[in-house]
Amino acid sequence: MDNEHPPEGPADGDEAAHGSRPTDFIREIIEEDLRTGKHGGRVHTRFPPEPNGYLHIGHAKSICLNFGIAGQYRGLCNLRYDDTNPSKEDVEYVDSIREDVRWLGFDWDDREFYASDYFGRLYEFAERLIEKGKAFVCDLTPEQMREYRGTLTEPGRESPYRERSAEENLDLFRRMRAGEFPDGSRTLRAKIDMASGNINMRDPVMYRILRATHHRTGDDWCIYPMYDFAHCCSDSIEKITYSICTLEFEDHRPLYDWYLEQLDIFRSRQIEFARLNLTYTIMSKRRLLQLVNEGKVSGWDDPLMPTISGLRRRGYTPGSIRAFAARIGVAKKDNRVSIDLLEHCLRDDLNARAPRVMAVLRPLKVVIENYPEGRTEELEAANNPEDPSMGSRMLPFSRELWIEKDDFMEDPPKKFFRLAPGSEVRLKHAYLITCPDVIRDAGGEVVELRCTCDPESRGGEAPDGRRVRGTLHWVSAAHAVPATVRLYDRLFAVPDPDDVPEGASFMKHLNPDALEILTGCLVEPSLREAPPLSHFQFLRHGYFCADPGSTPGGPVFNRSVPLRDSWVKIREKI
Ligand code: ATP
Ligand code: MG
Q1: Looking at the chain, which terminus has fewer C-beta neighbours within 10 angstroms, N or C?
Q2: Among this protein's residues, is 50 annotated catalytic?
Q3: Is 112 labeled as catalytic in the residue annotation?
Q4: How many CB atoms lie under 10 A from the CB of residue 142?
Q5: Cβ of 429: how many Cβ atoms within 10 Å?
């Protein structure tokens, strides 16, 4: 089946047009700077992932924001790996990040940078601060350093090594770099203010000694810069105008500004926004890694995971994620967004683009007794009744069919409009049928329906215009393709899985029914060669996506979302 769609470009359409009112406080700041000519009209952002895990939907918000702003104001956005922590980082993560950002529809041209590319420059910056008397080598152990740091209510104490001369500091720092001292025995610290009300300003560590092989610089270095020092300097080196980050860095901003001011280098501006939290899932990479390591999920790209690779395999489209990011906007206050909104954005997108097809998940045999044996008819079926440009396909129909088991009831309640003895239903795109007889197995369970069709109702309409309410999906037994269907639900059973009492683990909230695997499903023949990651609406079941790992045992389809849209209901209530 043709399931190719035109490639989705970057989020032009998702963004407010240049020149209209800014949609959030970050764009307000940018437009004010553009008015006053602060950076000569230049807008330059960056997305700075640490390659210590796969990207998740929270990162997608940041990606859409940074690349979206660059696109909107004809600026640039760099991809910068913040790789200053060699013990947790890996090239597997580097590669996945690149793939995910690209898949979301964004492009950084040749501006793929690494904080580790700047290790030489950062080292020079550090020496410059030492020469200015603004940094010193400290011999306190980590425990002592904690003791000296003070608390939120008590000022810290100055290190006894704080007044070393610039010459001595320079000599010791060079010897740190040369590998003369053991790991953790010394640090380089900024000399700021141990009495500051902001703990980040109490002589923070700039460099530590760590013998770890870095995935890019190998064993070139045995000292590594701390995040706060490396990040602002990297921003400055790249002449980033807006360094957009999440709220927990708000208290780090004075330090960010202090380094750039003391070094007298390009002043990037840090702006904080609220990170994305979603109901029924978690965002911390550390915890996601724990799910992977403990085998609670099949990997980072398990369709249950909130990772971009998991969402992709679940059947999310780049457009739906960008639309979601645009809908939630940017705020200054932390909150938790309903996952219903994310699912709503996906339905909205797939409703327009996914062909409607027929798949029977729990099959029950139907034999049309008055339909000739050995005959096959090809019936035309529109791929999307709302969009004729999506064309149609031919569906084979024959005497033996499969329908959904729960579309038949022997003793139906009132208002059951599906198949029951004596009732008439429509087989979608095909014929009207009734069910005069059933066949049971030894246990009395119905295993086959003996039905009759109205031969005059080809296409599904009665010749005399009589009213038939129920419409069932079906597949022809001789032509159906066996398939496996994975029904995914939410990863966690509670809306806020991060909220666990002291000592308890978030793991206890995992949803035991998050995945139901149905084998022995039967799908229409057009799905035999469904391309990996192609999207479908299985009539009456929801949206599904062909799993890229489909096997010789027949295709595997992952349910992206059921059809029912609870967001619409929530919105109506508001
Ligand atoms: P985590 O807390 O999940 O481990 P992180 O902040 O350590 O994530 P980074 O790789 O450092 O992950 O993040 C890269 C960028 O993405 C940063 O600018 C960070 O602020 C942003 N980001 C991370 N998580 C979120 C989120 N939930 N919502 C919005 N932006 C986020
Ligand atoms: Mg981080």
Answers
A1: C
A2: yes
A3: no
A4: 11
A5: 22
Return the ligand number nearest the Cα of 245: 1
Q: How confident is the model at residue 573 (pLDDT cuts 50, 70, 90)?
A: low
Q: What is the pLDDT of residues 302-346, one digit of tens each?
A: 999 999 999 999 999 999 999 999 999 999 998 899 999 999 999
Q: Tell me the best of 272, 275, 286, 506 to mutate to test the pocket of ligand 1, counting ligand atoms within 8 Å of each CB and taking the most.
A: 275
| 410-421 residue pLDDT tens | 999 988 999 999
pLDDT higher than threshold 50 for residue 4: no
- Look at residue 253 and give its three-state secondary structure: helix
Does the 354-573 domain belong in CATH 3.40.50.300?
no
pLDDT, mean of residues 254-283? 97
Identify whether 275 is a catalytic site residue. Answer: yes
Strand pairing report for 481-488 and 474-476: unpaired
What is d(CA 246, CA 470) in angstroms, rounded to the nearest whole number? Answer: 52
Domain boundaries, the chain: 15-110+231-347, 119-225, 354-573
Asked if 195 and 153 count as a contact pair (C-beta separation under 8 A), the reply is no
Using CA atoms, how far residue 266 sits from 263, 478, 556, in Å, is: 9, 71, 53
Q: Which residues contact 160 (CB under 8 A, 6 or more apart)?
A: 140
570 — pLDDT class (breaks 50, 70, 90): low
Domain 119-225 has CATH 3.40.630.10: no
CATH architecture of 15-110+231-347: 3-Layer(aba) Sandwich (3.40)
Reduced to 3 states (helix: H, G, I; strand: E, B; else coil), residue 29 is helix
**Backbone phi and psi for residue 155, each to the nearest 5 degrees, phi listed first:** -65, 160
Q: What pLDDT is stored for residue 7 in this prediction?
A: 38
Query: What is the tens place of the pLDDT at every residue in 528-567?
Result: 999 999 999 999 999 999 999 867 778 999 999 999 877 6
Instruction: Compute the distance from residue 81 Cα to the ligand 2 centre, in Å.
Output: 11
Question: 566-571 — which CB contacts under 8 Å span 24+ positions?
Answer: 566/340, 566/343, 567/338, 567/340, 567/341, 567/343, 567/344, 568/344, 570/338, 570/340
How close is the Cα of 244 to the center of ligand 1, in Å?
A: 11
Query: Where would I find the beta strands (DSSP E) of 373-468?
Result: 377-382, 392-397, 400-404, 424-427, 432-440, 446-453
Task: Choose the residue to mutate in 59, 63, 334 for probing ligand 1, maximizing ligand atoms within 8 Å of C-beta.
Answer: 59
